[in-house]
């Protein structure tokens, strides 16, 4: 028997603040229905929410691909957007490029990417200025 | 093992005509309509009472106690929810309502205000000394506790482990009356005058406590008629001076009752289940870390909006505020006394709250993954207009029911119609082929 894997792709539009957060809520509810360990669900919820908000705030559009297997929950994020000129700087806690509007909404503490990395077992980021950013996040299910 | 949950609502099959109002209103998708009657899914129901509000045929019966049920107690003490006072006109004071409650058959009436004030102080002490994960979420509303247990099981540790004022009132009243009368506490029935059915569940399941100090709950709407008649007969000379209420005690009945010790920007007040769910989703996603305390009410505007009250929640809130203006602003309990009792753990829950997550699609992850794929495949065949004709509140819920073997795919009228159209087309094709081979001789 093939190892089962559940996959679902979600589209996110940049600047669509009225729907911001819905994808990560949907991801979290889907994981709960599959009986995924609550602490894994919570970590994925945090990671997917940060990823979704980054898309909404910075990108033109993007997609978030969730896949769930017996061993792990994986999230691949792929956006069309401005890209990040200095990835290692963006990964530092407290570094932020948030506009005053974003700060008014409670973002821009410079914790987005660091927070994602902290909650992931595997984390990879690549970015091209003027094209977009790709993220790979894997959260391991407890053995 | 199937866990047994207590519930405070009963669906009356003789009255239900299957109109689906409750199914559409249920915030946790706990209602299905099967064979033309509404059915409750016990593991999903959190006893919020939204179904009671919308049922046009009064087919959902709250399982609160009736006055006749109380005769089993040798001595009865009423503990009115502060929301009770807001049901009456503003010239009716708590003292008159106390006398009226006694005329209705209660031996004693215990004001909830001292306990409300004490719990407010205890909460401030707890928050001050707490060094765990924020935000803490209020636990006085039993529906909120149940919501976390069912939908956010990994967040139950964030529920404030301080007892609800109604429990403190019941405990103190029993002790005092027992001392006064010599009756053993178990002969004294502590009866909450409740704005909602969820307090019944809290009495039966006593989350966070070894047992509840309350013994019964009578609803405001059941009691209102005889109570209002009794109020109109109360003479001024009969005003009870033991109706000691405080302005801060009354503020427990509506939205915005926050610990004064915390800066306003670190607290939140939320009412109405749909709003509470959105806020808890944000807490779960780590968005609200700067908040330290979130006050959550399941009902609109708080307890004044309970589904077993009689007054419009907004008018009731206005009346509660008006009444507050005539009451002392200061706490009516002594802070040092409360602090001493707090140190003796008299205000804290004595059991851990535990989650009771919904049963997943399958206990085995591989099979659950398979079923989730199956659910999405079925869902892609459905119209996604959530018409409800199949008896499930949404196409998604229906797809899940099908995967779990609790519904048939053909119950969807759209799916069935499309299936029929396909078959008709196949038959027409067959007829055409037959005609071609026979040259239309038939």
Task: Describe this protein's structure.
- Chain A has one domain (6-140): Heat Shock Protein 90 (2-Layer Sandwich).
- The longest helix of chain A has 21 residues, at 38-58.
- In chain A, a hairpin with a 3-residue loop joins strand 4 and strand 5 (132-140).
- Chain A has helices spanning 22-33, 38-58, 87-90, 100-104, 112-119, and strands at 6-13, 61-68, 72-80, 122-128, 132-140.
- In chain A, helix 1 packs antiparallel against helix 2 (38-58) and helix 2 packs antiparallel against helix 5.
- In chain A, strands 1-2-3-5-4 form a 5-stranded antiparallel β-sheet, covered by helices on one side.
- Chain A is an alpha+beta fold.
- Chain B has 442 residues and is α/β, with parallel strands linked by helices.
- Chain B folds into 3 domains: 9-62, Alpha-Beta Plaits (2-Layer Sandwich), CATH 3.30.70; 67-343, no CATH class; 365-438, Electron transport complex subunit B, putative Fe-S cluster (3-methyladenine DNA Glycosylase II, Chain A, domain 3).
- In chain B, 40% of the residues lie in helices and 10% in strands.
- Chain B is built from 15 helices and 11 strands.
- In chain B, the strands form 4 sheets. In chain B, strands 6-5-8-9 form a 4-stranded parallel β-sheet, with helices on both faces. In chain B, strands 7-11-10 form a 3-stranded parallel β-sheet, covered by helices on one side. Chain B has a two-stranded antiparallel ribbon with strand order 1-4.
- In chain B, a hairpin with a 2-residue loop joins strand 2 and strand 3 (37-40).
- In chain B, helix 4 crosses helix 6 (165-181).
- Chain B starts with 8 loop residues before the first strand and ends with a helix.
């Amino acid at each position: 028997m093939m190892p089962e894997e559940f996959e679902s792709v979600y589209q996110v539009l940049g600047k669509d603040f009225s729907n911001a957060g819905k994808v990560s809520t949907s991801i979290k509810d889907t994981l709960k229905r599959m009986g995924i360990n609550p602490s894994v669900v919570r970590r994925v919820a945090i990671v997917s929410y940060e990823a979704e908000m980054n898309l909404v705030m910075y990108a033109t559009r993007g997609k978030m691909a969730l896949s769930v297997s017996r061993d792990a929950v994986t999230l691949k994020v792929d956006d069309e957007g401005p890209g990040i000129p200095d990835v290692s700087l963006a990964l530092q806690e407290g570094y932020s490029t948030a506009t005053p509007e974003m700060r008014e909404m409670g973002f821009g503490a410079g914790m987005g990417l660091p927070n994602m990395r902290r909650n992931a077992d595997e984390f990879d980021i690549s970015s091209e200025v003027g094209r977009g950013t790709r993220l790979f996040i894997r959260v391991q299910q407890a053995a | 093992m199937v866990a047994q949950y207590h519930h405070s609502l009963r669906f009356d099959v003789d009255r239900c005509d299957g109109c689906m109002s409750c199914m559409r209103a249920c915030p946790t998708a706990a209602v299905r309509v099967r064979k033309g009657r509404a059915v409750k899914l016990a593991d999903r129901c959190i006893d919020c009472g939204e179904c009671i509000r919308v049922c046009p045929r009064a087919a959902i019966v709250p399982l609160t106690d009736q006055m006749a049920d109380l005769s089993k107690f040798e001595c009865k003490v009423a503990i009115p929810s502060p929301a009770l006072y807001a049901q009456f006109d503003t010239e009716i004071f708590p003292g008159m309502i106390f006398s009226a409650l006694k005329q209705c058959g209660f031996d004693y009436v215990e004001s909830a205000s001292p306990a409300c004030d004490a719990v407010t102080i205890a909460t401030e002490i707890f928050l001050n000394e707490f060094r765990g994960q924020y935000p803490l979420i209020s636990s006085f509303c039993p529906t909120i506790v149940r919501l976390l247990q069912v939908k956010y099981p990994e967040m139950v540790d964030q529920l404030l482990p301080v007892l609800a004022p109604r429990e403190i009132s019941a405990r103190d009243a029993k002790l005092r009356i027992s001392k006064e009368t010599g009756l053993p506490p178990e002969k004294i029935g502590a009866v909450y005058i409740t704005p909602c059915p969820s307090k019944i569940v809290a009495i039966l399941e006593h989350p966070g406590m070894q047992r509840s100090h309350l013994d019964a709950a009578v609803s405001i709407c059941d009691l209102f008629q005889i109570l209002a008649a009794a109020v109109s007969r109360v003479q001024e000379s009969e005003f009870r001076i033991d109706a000691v209420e405080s302005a801060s005690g009354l503020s427990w009945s509506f939205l915005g009752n926050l610990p004064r010790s915390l800066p306003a920007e670190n607290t939140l007040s939320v009412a109405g289940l749909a709003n509470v769910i959105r806020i808890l989703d944000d807490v779960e996603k780590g968005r609200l870390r700067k908040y330290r305390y979130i006050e959550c009410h399941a009902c609109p505007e708080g307890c004044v909006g309970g589904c077993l009250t009689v007054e419009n929640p907004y008018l009731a809130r206005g009346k509660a505020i008006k009444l507050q203006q005539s009451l002392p602003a200061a706490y009516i309990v002594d802070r040092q006394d409360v602090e001493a009792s707090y140190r003796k753990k008299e205000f804290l829950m004595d059991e851990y709250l535990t989650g009771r997550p919904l049963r997943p699609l399958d206990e085995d992850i591989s099979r659950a993954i398979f079923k989730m794929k199956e659910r999405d495949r079925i869902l892609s065949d459905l119209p996604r207009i959530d018409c409800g004709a199949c008896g499930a509140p949404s196409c998604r819920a229906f797809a899940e029911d099908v995967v779990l073997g609790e519904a048939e795919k053909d119950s969807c009228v759209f799916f069935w119609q499309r299936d029929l159209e396909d078959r008709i087309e196949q038959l027409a094709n067959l007829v055409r082929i037959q005609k071609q081979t026979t040259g239309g001789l038939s």
